[in-house]
Amino acid sequence: MTRVLKPEEKKLLQAVLHFSKLKKKKLYLVGGYLRDILLKREKENPDLDFCLKAGAINFGRALKKDIGAGFVVLDKEHGSCRLLKRLGNRIYTLDFTDFRGKNLEDDLLHRDFTINSLAMGLEEFLGRDNFLNNLIDYYQAKDDLKAGVIRCVNMKSFHEDPLRILRAFSLSAIFGFIISVPTLKLIKKEKEKLSQVSFERVRDEIFKIFDRPDSFKYLEFLDELKILKIIIPEIEIMRGVKQGPYHHLDVFKHSLESVRQVELVMQELKRNKDLENYFDEPIAAQRKRRSLIKLGILLHDIGKPGARRRRQGKLIFHGHEKIGKDLTRIIARRLKLSNDEVEALEKMVFWHLRPGYLADNEEISRRAKFRYFRDTQKEAASVLVISLADQRSTCGLLTTRKSRIQHEKMVSSLLKEYFRKQKEKKAPRLISGGDLIAKLKIPPSPLIGKILSEIEELQAIGKIKNKQEALKFAEKVSKSVNQGTSR
């Protein structure tokens, strides 16, 4: 077996090797990079992990100048640093770490799982010999890769880094591997340690799970092991909360089933290129909207327990979308999501009922459509997909086939309209705030924004077609406001 490197990748590794020889440092490639070669897997942005006997941070700091890369210290105590190097459209991450032990074998004993315990000298890697001939495998990594098993290298693995508890599931999701029985037993024993891990690191692993097309089953597994509630403790309030006759599941089980349904919807719509591009749009870092939608639908009804009331013998949940939005913001901030991600999640949760209300009508007015797209903005399609999955997860006695068909038609129609609008050139505003101030002789105020918003809506639905009509409408609104004030 030989490794075919991209020219840019080979050149980068040769530069690292040349520098290591100048510094008289023996470098070893370790872990995932070698694992992926055996699995014939290629990452969009490669991660290269190196280890050396000692001095990793000083080595990395000097290397950054030599190859022109970004540099950050990851762990001063354990001698670990990271370099980031952009080559063309790819970003290469190079991590350098001191041996965790007296030699390479000791170091590999402290790796998380056997499948990540492979090693090879960088010089040997770039040599002409067969790849397998130079592969160092002290802990049967090749056997576990062949068997498709996630197995701890040592029994202290989770004590050394509790994040590995969650990483076992993200690796299982990525590769479709099973977690070995002894490792699962250790996870059950050590799971509470996960609460000690920084939320940024937890977020990255949970999003690796959301990235997969079948993340539902891994979330379900995490829930069975009572790990999901350690990551998002707020979900516990949904458990056992019964709903009305439209539902057949309690709030939590319905929310989990909704994740399964949204993945089925995404699979059904895979041929829709507009939607695929929309789902795959990165919102922050390398986190895509596709994954964010799954978190959004998991949380879409989290406000129901706080809103649950019984009125005239009926269960009602009025205002649960507002409570849910506030809880979602707390969860998203704790997971250190970006402002754009927080805003997107809030829209998904707050507006998830709107498509259902629209579907109650045989015909949706132009005004109703305009207001829907205005309120949901970039998340209009996300909310529609969430609504569709939410509706499919609802199979109570009062749920009818007719209402389901009508809902699905409405979602399909609005999705087409959303992407059509995205391709259209937006009509220019008929008037500006300056026009209103000059014409109406009023100072800048919230009234200006209110009038402009109403004119934009009337323009969109064809009720106002030119500047003269817009100014006439503005004068009418202004007079009405003034008359109301004078009374």
What does this entry look like structurally?
The protein has 487 residues and is of the alpha+beta class. The protein has three domains: 7-222, Beta Polymerase, domain 2 (2-Layer Sandwich); 232-423, Orthogonal Bundle (Hypothetical protein af1432); 433-478, no CATH class. The protein is 55% helix and 10% strand. It has 25 helices and twelve strands. A hairpin with a 4-residue loop joins strand 3 and strand 4 (80-87). It starts with 6 loop residues before the first helix and ends with a helix.
Concise structural overview:
The protein contains 25 helices and twelve strands.
Would you count the extended β strands for me? 12
Work out the helix count.
25
Could you please say which CATH topology of the largest domain applies here?
A: Beta Polymerase, domain 2
Could you state the CATH homologous superfamily of the largest domain? Answer: Beta Polymerase, domain 2
What radius of gyration results from the CA coordinates?
A: 28 Å
Could you tell me how far the N terminus lies from the C terminus, measured between alpha carbons in angstroms? 88 Å
Strand order of the largest sheet: 3-4-5-2-1-6
Give the overall form: globular
* Proportion of helical residues: 55-70%
CATH class of the largest domain: Alpha Beta
Question: In CATH terms, what is the architecture of the largest domain?
Answer: 2-Layer Sandwich
Instruction: Write down the overall mean pLDDT.
Output: 92
Structural class: alpha+beta
Poorly predicted runs: none
Question: Percent of residues in beta strands?
Answer: 5-15%
Sheet of most strands: 6 strands, mixed
Q: Into how many domains do the coordinates divide?
A: 3
